[in-house]
Each structure stands twice: as C-alpha cells, then as structure tokens.
Amino acid sequence: MMRRRTTLLTSCTALALALGATACGGGPVSAGGGDKALSGQTVTVAGVWTGSEQKNFQKVLDAFTAKTGAKTQFISTGDNVSTVVGSKIEGGNAPDVVMVPQVGVLDQFAKKGWLKPLSPTAQSTITADYAPVWKKYGSVDGTLYGLYFKAAHKSTVWYSPDALSQAGVKPPKTYDEMLKAGHTVSDSGLAAFAVGGEDGWTLTDWFENIYLSQAGPEKYDALAAHKLKWTDASVVKALGTLGKLFKDKQLIAGGQKEALNTDFPSSVEKVFGPKPEAGMVYEGDFVGGVAHDQFGKTIGKDANFFPFPAVDGGTAPVVSGGDAAVVLKDGKNATAGMKLLEYLATPEAAAVWAKAGGFLSPNKKLDPASYGDDVTRATAKSLIDAGDSVRFDMSDQAPAAFGGTKGAGEWKLLQDFLRDPSDPKGTAAKLEAAAAKAYQG
C-alpha cells in the first residue's frame, strides 16, 4: 500500500511508544500516563473481528501494552455479540471491554445495567475531537457509554478498474445507470456484482442505501426508530428497487443460490482474487483493506470505488457504521479497561490501525497522512466532512433480535428475499412482524 508523507508521523508514534510518556508536541497521554502503571494487569477485549481486522486491531492493543505495560487478550465473538457476551457475564467470565458493532446492542447492554459510563477523560476527548453524532450514538438516556473507535463508510461500491475499463464502463451516478453498467460488464464476460448473501448484514446495507436515497432522511430516521412501520409504501418501493438487482441472474455472480452461499470475504475475492468472477462488489470502505491484505491489490490502481449512486432522483446516500468500545461493570479489570478506552480515544491509537489499512476513524484530530493511500484518505475526509448529516446503519440501531442476529429478523428475511424477490409487499409484512416483536421485547 502506498504511504505518502508518513515518515514524520511514524517516527513520532514510534518515539512516543518508545518513551512511553508524551505524544509529539503534546502533553502527557492518558492510558496510564505512559509510566507502565498497568504492568502485571491483563485487559480482556471481546469483538466480532477476525482475520486481517483482528490482526490489525492487535497492533493497536500491542501499542497500548508498550505504553502502559498492560497485557491484552482478544476474544472473537462471531456475529452474535449480544448472546456471547451475555453468556460470559452469566458464567462469571465477563470481558473487560467489548467492541460493540451495533447501536441497538449498546442500548441493550446499557439498559441491562452491564456498562460503566465513560470516564471524564474519555468523555472530554470525545466532546472535543468527534462530531456530535458519534456522541449521540454512544449514549443511552443521556449517559455516554460508547467510544466509536472504528467507523465504516457504507456507501461505497468497489470495482476492478480493469474490469470496468475492458467493458468501456465509467463509474455511474445513479442506481439505474449502475444496473445498466452492470449489464455491460456482464456482456464483456464477468458478472456485474459479487453479493455476500450468506452474511445477512450485507443485504441490510444494500437496502439501507437504497432506502435513504429513495425515501429520504426523515423516513429513514422514523423507520430506524420503528416510528414508521415496515409495511409503509416507501419500504415496499425500496424492496422492489433492490429486487431488480436480486432477480437479475445476469447481474449477480453465480445467481441467487450462489450469492446465498457467499460470505463477505468471498464476495471480495470474487472481484479481487486470482480468478475474478465479477467486476463490482458493494460494501463499506473495509473492502479496500481485504483487497489489499488478502489479495495484494494496490488501492487506487487495482481496486477503487465510486459512491453508492442516487436512487430515483434522491440524494446520494451516506450511511455509516462503527464499532463502539464499552467497559463492562462485571469485568475483572474494568479500571484498566477504561484506560484502554482513554487510549483508543486518542489520534495516536487510531494512527496505528490507519497505517495498517482497512480502517477509518471518526476522530477529527487524526492526521490524514496516517492513512496509507489517497483513496482511503478521500473516504475518511468524506466521512468527517459529512458531520452530523451522516445516517447510522439502520439495522445496527435496531434491537439485536431484529437487526443483528444471524439466522433471524432482518438478516434472515432479506436472505429469503434474495432467494425469492417476487413479493416485496409480503416481505415488508414479515419485516414489520419481526420488528414489532423485537422492539416490544
């Protein structure tokens, strides 16, 4: 991955870690003050990350260890964070810190009384260095529990420049143009899209981008809060728009059946792997990290993206997501866990993963030079510049039973819709029934 103008930043970070005392040009950093005050302690962190994401987050944890002396242990939970963490708490083996990937799960944890409010140090950093929207999504009933360390820009369609060039296609500006371009790519010998339908969250992201652009932000917010029913005509219309893609065998690599047996990493491989099967894959900015780390692609040259296009004359959507760090009350080392959160709130911590790639930070103080390529820098700037106009992933705002559980709720119902997209109205009714049950619970 290309790294420009990073020498000063890298040497600064290395010096700070080596001395364990100050950030370059700044005062003392929290997280134990760099005096190895946490030596002999271990912080247990649970999160969904595996593969390259887990490997890169471990670099951040190692930097925390170098600064504070605290050891760390990462536990991968899989997608069902709520279930796994709940069972660990009940078994008396709660982690100290959880990286929560859904607002709805954070809300659930807080209302169960599992979380410690963030320390004054972490709160002041978030207030100063993050857009208010991130504080809003980290809070429950006015109390701030979550620090958004890793953000996602979920309005990016990634493509192989070679595939689009060979088909004579330019990045489209509208959804209809994108489907038309997809047919041109298909005519040239590759399927248009790889769809990771085995992972239901990829399908919710497809729906959310279409819905935000087509129905508008007010209805998006209402649906996210379940103040608007899923049987609303705007939902049925968006499902119909998504169904145009799902039912078109020329557009999806391997058709619907293969899409349902393709997980997210495999969908990226179908575009950027050694044997390409498709020209494009929709998902967040983190596609670039997988394309680079797993398949050696140079971002901006071998892999690029265009913004998710506007639908039916609407505004192009900007959907985001993120992983919020929270501290559990029942963790054996919650005090050291809070020190980890104070460290994660700093641009120094964000710079470690930014350098490794496949990462965006909502921290406004992070030097853009920390990112290793111009494409990631542009994506990060887009997210920061969006400020409070960005809309958080809708399924992540829902109760986990509806928006964040494998084989259930919205994930399963959209997988069923991918399998048979012929009845948008019927799917909307099933979504409403599942949502009503989850929100009441």
TrEMBL record:
Residues 1-23 form the signal peptide. SUPFAM superfamilies: Periplasmic binding protein-like II. PANTHER family: ARABINOSE-BINDING PROTEIN-RELATED (PTHR43649), OSMOPROTECTIVE COMPOUNDS-BINDING PROTEIN GGTB (PTHR43649:SF29). Belongs to the bacterial solute-binding protein 1 family. The keyword Transport applies. This is Sugar ABC transporter substrate-binding protein. The keyword Isomerase does not apply. It comes from the Bacteria. Keywords: Signal, Transport. It comes from Streptomyces incarnatus. The lineage of its organism: Bacteria, Bacillati, Actinomycetota, Actinomycetes, Kitasatosporales.
